């Protein structure tokens, strides 16, 4: 009873210990997610507002730059000469030319503006506002001009003088330039900004009010304007505030040209509500999961722990040599089958002990088949990818050739009556493979020279093909010039059979070849090719440790791979 209580308690504590870090990590993750999203909201709002402000300031800067530079125009310089006043025809002709230049600038500018030129020396005035009579009145220019644009009615107005030092005393200027643009340009840009983004931008001035987009929330902007008036605003920044029980993030940037603020605001909670809902759902799920876990623990204890204890006691008696032990289980589940198998095992244990030698042979045969099964997909994948690429390139000849070769390959490997093949059969398969590769590369040639007396010798199926494939992929394909594959085979004076595959590829250093040779004897890892490793392992399993692969430099310039084995080691008895 004490044992069952302890197991149950341990499982319960394990569940609680698993839930506690999950809760802690999720709470921390949720808090960090909220913080990151809040920062992103603030950063995104500020960036959008900065982009909008930059666009407006760019247009205003172009207008201001034109107002400063227009006085340098030669025709305007000539028009304001006092001695030119006595030539009425020339003055009218020159005034028409000046107006054409100002209209051309308006046509090229993004914002249509009204440009008026006052000439204090001659008392003349020229303006692109054709429907109003503009005259120069000296009394209108007694006060110094501001450096920023002034808001007058529904327009923003800015003055420039020539020379620029006359800004503080306009009556001493040779030329006064007045440029104005309507606030409709700003409203249009506010509308475009709102369509492209999720905010509600507007312009704010503490003494002159706001300029809003067409679909602005006037009530919210009115409340927000009051908060902006009550706040001490810098050149740029942001703050959080609540409007109608909803938290907003407000971002503002001061315009140096207009002496107004660009303002935008976004609701925080509306964006964070999915995270809040997800958090509440997670905590509810954890509570339900805890209750269900306790119920499952009890069920598992009754259905699993008790039968396991009975099975442990039976295995202890069996390990002590009591083969008469039998297990009884009244339930109808997997443990009933397990107990039945246990009883059968107890009856046949003696027979299994006597047949241990046969079981070792079967285990070795299973290992060989497992190693060979890893070879087959290696070539299949290459063929399928090649067919796909050739089909995409509309190379019907190559597709047909590869398909026929793939059919021959499957006919070859599906002959399951024997895991071995003759060298003649292996060479036939490799010949087809090389012909396909020659068709694909168009710069490869190959020769096969194998002695007739070893053609009927048996070897593991699919031993030669991975070696040839490696020579092509890693040796010939990386180089630009033509390549050659040479296959030779013979039996030496010591009764060993050898198949040699050489290539004229890029080759490798002696140190790399030694490292590659060493990897053949180690367990397979991600850095070792599956094909060559399997070939080496199968040769060792079939013909003993003296068989296998070895690498050396080839006289062709690439790598020479030698496959060596001996009949005297074939099918060696397992000790």
Automatic annotation (TrEMBL):
The keyword Metal-binding does not apply. Pfam families: HAMP (PF00672), HATPase_c (PF02518), His_kinase (PF06580). The keyword Membrane applies. Residues 302-354 form the HAMP domain. It is a multi-pass membrane protein. Its main location: membrane. It is found in: Cell membrane. The chain crosses the membrane at residues 281-301. This is Sensor histidine kinase YesM. It comes from Paenibacillus glycanilyticus. The lineage of its organism: Bacteria, Bacillati, Bacillota, Bacilli, Bacillales.
């Amino acid at each position: 009873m004490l044992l069952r209580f302890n197991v149950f308690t341990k499982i319960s504590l394990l569940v609680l210990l698993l839930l506690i870090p999950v809760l802690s990590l999720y709470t921390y993750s949720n808090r960090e997610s909220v913080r990151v999203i809040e920062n992103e909201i603030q950063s995104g709002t500020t960036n959008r507002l900065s982009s909008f402000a930059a666009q407006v300031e760019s247009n205003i800067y172009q207008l201001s730059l034109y107002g400063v530079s227009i006085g340098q125009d030669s025709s305007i310089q000539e028009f304001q000469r006092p001695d030119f006043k006595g030539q009425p025809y020339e003055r009218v002709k020159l005034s028409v030319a000046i107006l054409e230049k100002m209209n051309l600038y308006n046509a090229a500018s993004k914002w249509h503006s009204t440009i008026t030129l006052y000439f204090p020396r001659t008392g003349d005035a020229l303006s692109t506002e054709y429907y109003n009579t503009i005259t120069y009145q000296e009394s209108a220019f007694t006060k110094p001009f501001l450096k920023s644009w002034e808001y007058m009615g529904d327009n923003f107005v800015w003055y420039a003088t020539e020379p620029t030092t006359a800004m503080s005393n306009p009556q001493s200027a040779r030329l006064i330039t007045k440029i104005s643009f309507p606030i409709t340009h700003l409203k249009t840009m506010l509308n475009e900004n709102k369509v492209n983004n999720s905010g509600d931008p507007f312009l704010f001035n503490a003494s002159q009010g706001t300029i809003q987009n067409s679909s602005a929330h006037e009530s919210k902007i009115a409340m927000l304007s009051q908060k902006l008036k009550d706040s001490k605003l810098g050149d740029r920044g942001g703050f959080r505030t609540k409007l109608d029980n909803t938290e907003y993030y407000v971002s503002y940037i001061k315009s140096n040209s207009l002496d107004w603020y660009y303002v935008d605001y976004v609701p925080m909670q509306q964006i964070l509500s999915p995270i809040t809902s997800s958090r509440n759902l997670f905590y509810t799920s954890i509570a339900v999961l805890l209750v269900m876990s306790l119920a499952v623990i009890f069920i598992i204890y009754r259905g699993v722990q008790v039968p396991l204890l009975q099975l442990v006691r039976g295995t202890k008696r069996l390990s002590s040599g009591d083969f008469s032990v039998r297990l009884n289980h009244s339930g109808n589940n997997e443990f009933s089958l397990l107990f039945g198998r246990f009883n059968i095992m107890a009856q046949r244990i003696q027979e299994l002990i006597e047949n241990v030698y046969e079981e070792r042979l079967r285990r070795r045969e299973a290992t060989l088949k497992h190693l060979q099964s890893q070879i087959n997909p290696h070539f299949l994948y290459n063929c399928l990818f090649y067919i796909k690429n050739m089909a995409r390139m509309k190379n019907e000849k190559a597709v047909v050739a590869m398909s026929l070769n793939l059919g021959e390959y499957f006919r070859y490997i599906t002959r399951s009556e024997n895991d071995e093949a003759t060298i003649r059969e292996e060479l036939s398969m490799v010949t087809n493979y090389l012909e396909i590769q020659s068709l694909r590369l168009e710069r490869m040639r190959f020769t096969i020279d194998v002695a007739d007396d070893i053609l009927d010798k048996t070897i593991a199926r699919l031993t030669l093909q991975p070696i040839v494939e490696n020579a092509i992929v890693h040796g010939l394909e990386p180089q630009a010039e033509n390549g050659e594959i040479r296959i030779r085979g013979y039996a030496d004076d010591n009764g060993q059979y050898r198949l040699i595959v050489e290539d004229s590829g890029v080759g490798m250093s002696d140190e790399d070849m030694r490292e590659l040779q060493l990897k053949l004897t180690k367990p397979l890892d991600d850095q070792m090719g599956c094909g060559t490793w399997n070939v080496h392992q199968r040769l060792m399993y079939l013909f003993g440790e003296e068989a296998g692969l070895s690498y050396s430099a080839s006289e062709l310039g690439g790598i020479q791979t030698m496959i060596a084995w001996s009949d005297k080691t074939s099918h060696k008895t397992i000790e």
